[in-house]
Each structure stands twice: as C-alpha cells, then as structure tokens.
Amino acid sequence: MILEDKIEDLFGYVQERCLWQFFSRTWDRQENIDGVLNQVAALLADNEPERDTPMKKLHYADAKIMVSDLKERYPWLRGIDEIESRVLLDGLKARLIDTAITRSTNRELSHHLY
Predict the structure, then answer these.
(1) How far is residue 42's CA from residue 108's CA, in Å, rounded to a whole number?
(2) 86-105 confidence digits (pLDDT tens)
(3) Calpha distance 10→59 (Å, rounded)
(4) CB count, 10 Å around CB of 112?
(5) pTM, to two decimals
(6) CA angle 79, 32, 18 (to 5 degrees)
(7) Higher-confidence residue: 109 or 88?
(8) Which of 30, 54, 68, 98 is the most buried (most CB within 10 A)?
C-alpha cells in the first residue's frame, strides 16, 4: 500500500468520525488538528503523551479513541515505525488543514468580529 493510500484511509476516518476538525474558528480548527495529531503521534510511537493542561488532556482523549479505532481498522498501522508514522500524520495534517481551513467556504472562520 502506498503512502497516499494510507493518508487517504486516515483522512476518510477523520472526516467520518472526528468533529474536532469542524470547530467554528480558524484558530480552533488549527489548534485541534495540531493537538490531536500530536497526541496520536505520541501514542503510535509508544511515548507518553503530554497531559499537563486541560486542552492537552482533551486532545489526548480524542487521540486515544482515534488510535484504537485506526489500529482496528487498518492493520498496516501496527507495523510502521515512528518515522513513517510522522510522515503519515504530517500528510494527514496537511490534507485536513487544506480541506477544513484553507478551502473552507465558511466565511465565519476568519471573520474579524468572531
């Protein structure tokens, strides 16, 4: 399976299951995408995720469910190393930012009064 197909699998999962990508402001969406995917990277690398703030705990909770689901749905995810994991998550992050922020037609995302 090539890298783009794996990123497509992960993107499809996030689009279907994760509401954190659709918060109402650009900075909310960016913060959630960064926060959850950083926690996912830590969990996939068997590192201890940071949980020293309420926001990091929130991202950890979403990431923990996401990693469990992803490992169940995509067995290829269990055999990847930390470098490949980082490449996959960077690709997923770029795709999410492009879809949920850059190409979003929701004008409220960056409204100056919002």
Answers:
(1) 32
(2) 999 999 999 999 999 999 88
(3) 17
(4) 4
(5) 0.91
(6) 65
(7) 88
(8) 30
C-alpha–C-alpha distance, residues 8 and 46, integer Å: 23
Torsion angle (degrees, nearest 10) of CA 75, 77, 79, 80: 160
One-letter amino acid for residue 5 of the chain: D
User: Is 88 in contact with 8 (CB distance < 8 Å)?
Assistant: no
Question: What angle in degrees, to the nearest 10, is found between the helix axes of 26-44 and 54-73?
Answer: 60
How many helices, marked H, and strands, marked E, lie in the chain? 4, 0
Dihedral over Cα of 83, 76, 43, 39: its sign: positive
Question: 96, 14 in Cβ contact below 8 A?
Answer: yes
DSSP 100: I
Confirm if 29 and 103 have CB atoms less than 8 A apart. no
pLDDT digits 0-9 by tens, 13-59? 999 999 888 888 999 999 999 999 999 999 999 999 999 999 999 99
